[in-house]
Structures are given as C-alpha cells and as structure tokens.
Amino acid sequence: MIVTIDGVAASGKSSVSSGVARALGVPYVSSGLLYRAATLLAHEAGLSPHDPALVPHLEAQPLRFEPLAGGNRLWLGTRELTADVQSAAVDAGVSAVAARPELRAWVDRRLRALTPPFVAEGRDMGTAVFPHAQAKFYLTASARVRAGRRAAERPEAVDEIEAALILRDERDRAQSVPAPEAHVIDTGPLSLQGVIDTILAALPQGAAPARTS
Ligand SMILES: Nc1ncnc2c1ncn2[C@@H]1O[C@H](COP(=O)(O)OP(=O)(O)OP(=O)(O)O)[C@@H](O)[C@H]1O
Ligand SMILES: Nc1ccn([C@@H]2O[C@H](COP(=O)(O)O)[C@@H](O)[C@H]2O)c(=O)n1
C-alpha cells in the first residue's frame, strides 16, 4: 500500500505524514529531504543546479536516506545532514535544483527503489512518482497560517518567512499540482491531529488501522 500526501511548502506534509504513518505502522518517505540534500551537496561542492557534473557528483556521495515513521534522517557517511538541510539557505536554493529534470530523475529513482508499504510526501508523489497509489491527499493553507507555524521553528521573522514561502510555492508550481483524485484538505482551521484523523478516516477499507470501539 502507498499513500501519497502532497502539498504546498510548510502545509504540514512531514508532520501529518509521520502521524498517518505511525497510525498505520509503516514508514513515511520525505521526497523533499532528497531535493534538500542535493541542494546542500551542490552548494558545498560549488556546483550550480545546471552543472552536468551535479548528478555524477551526487551518485558518488555516500548519501544514506533513512525513511522511518517517526522522522526521516539523512547521512553523508557518518555526518548527519538532517538538520543542515532545513535552513533558509537551502529553502532559497532548492527550487532551482528541483526544476532540473535530471535531478528529479535522481530523486525518483531512489524513491521507486523503496519497498511499500509507506506514506510518501512531497509535491508530485500522487501525480508523477506513484500514480498508482491507493490513496492520495493534497494539503493547503494560507501563506500567513503556514508562516505563523514555521515561525515557531525558525529564527526568521514571520513576514520574511511568509514572503519566502510565497516565492517557493511560485517556483514549485510546475510540479505541485493535486492529482485529480486527491482529497484536498485545507489545514488552516484544523489541528495537526485533526488533519491526521481526516486522512485516516478517508483511507480505503483495509488500509486504515483497526478502530478500537
Ligand atoms: N494542522 C496543523 N495545525 C497546527 N500546526 C501544524 C499543522 N500542520 C503542521 N503544523 C506545524 O507546521 C509546521 C510545518 O509543518 P511541516 O514541517 O510538517 O510542513 P511541511 O509541509 O513538511 O514543510 P516543508 O514543505 O517545508 O517540508 C510544523 O511546526 C508543524 O508542527
Ligand atoms: N516531490 C517533491 C518534493 C520536494 N520538491 C522540492 O524540494 C523542496 C523542498 O521540499 P519540502 O517538502 O521539504 O518543502 C520544494 O520546495 C521543491 O522545490 C519537489 O520539487 N518535489
């Protein structure tokens, strides 16, 4: 079973996917983390997103991706990259990397090599990467709501975060479209648990965890 949870930046994809995955007892897979890793490693190697040497450089790195239900972790050999890729600098550069078809193919190869069941989150999980997924969701919320939530995690001011989110949504627009059959959920008025419960209730029979009442 594959469940896809796509959506705009900071709409709650990782937190919601983790909650849904834990309820189902399966891992979740953050595709954005791989685009973020590519961005950080390109920057550290002084390679532009357009450089034909970028994918060979990435292929040569000892990059290890751990998709677990409680959280996804990234390693470069013994160096953990998980926190390093969640920076404003990576946020600002990642869309240019993600726009490169050869980079998308590099990420997609790694994702399709994973063995289901899992919950996959990103922008194009339900459309391009796992079009055969059993259930598809797409999360939205206003930029202001998303910026307010993110401000609790990052040092930048809420106005600066909101402007960066709007810009990133615009740059990601090409690959961030809900699948026609996706359940679109506005997370603005819902708590995190409320979104998780909405998704669990909409899963097809057999995919949802057994109810205890
Ligand atoms: N429905 C909700 N109600 C309140 N807070 C939420 C809700 N959903 C997510 N959050 C909070 O919003 C923040 C952003 O969520 P999260 O990191 O899961 O988003 P994301 O879509 O994965 O972000 P990104 O696109 O940058 O990877 C987190 O602090 C999370 O706890
Ligand atoms: N399926 C995806 C997932 C992500 N991206 C790009 O990566 C950036 C970071 O993703 P987050 O989920 O961590 O916000 C995102 O802004 C996109 O540029 C993508 O293209 N496709």
Automatic annotation (TrEMBL):
Annotated catalysed reactions: CMP + ATP = CDP + ADP; dCMP + ATP = dCDP + ADP
Signal peptide: none
Pfam family, any one: Cytidylate_kin
Localization in the cell: Cytoplasm
Name of the top EC class for this enzyme: transferase
Residues involved in ATP binding: 7-15
Family that this chain belongs to: Belongs to the cytidylate kinase family. Type 1 subfamily.
Protein known as: Cytidylate kinase
Source organism: Deinococcus petrolearius
The gene coding this protein: cmk
